[in-house]
Known about the structure:
Blueprint: H1 20-27, H2 30-49, H3 62-69, H4 76-83, H5 86-106, H6 110-127, H7 140-153, H8 160-173
Amino acid sequence: xxxxxxxxxxxxxxxxxxxxxxxxxxxxxxxxxxxxxxxxxxxxxxxxxxxxxxxxxxxxxxxxxxxxxxxxxxxxxxxxxxxxxxxxxxxxxxxxxxxxxxxxxxxxxxxxxxxxxxxxxxxxxxxxxxxxxxxxxxxxxxxxxxxxxxxxxxxxxxxxxxxxxxxxxxxxxxx
Length: 175
């Protein structure tokens, strides 16, 4: 069996030439960003519009949910902290999800938003879905890992971050 060296060349997008692979690479994180953004905006709005969720106790409340998972969570101290003010924690969670989702959708401070989304997902995994057996039945862990590429790469296209970066570059170039 002989091995050969690939002779076709790909152009870099540094000189403005792009083929479909370069374009696909540039836009690869966009579907993930849109999915996570929509999902977290929806989750935040769902919490804010659910009359039962933001209560300290009662069916479907954040308080009862936290009390139910306290003994099975990986970090009961996090649940105890949330139980000091369940309604306040519920609002913080809802507004945090909204901020993260809007940041991801608009590409606004995307790395910070993604880091926040990863922290929210991690805290939910360590508390609410920790007892899922097998672990892959709980959805918070995959969400956490979905945020990691966005935290590392940001939003290089179709984002406010990219627009600001381009304006800054133009000013530095004297345009």
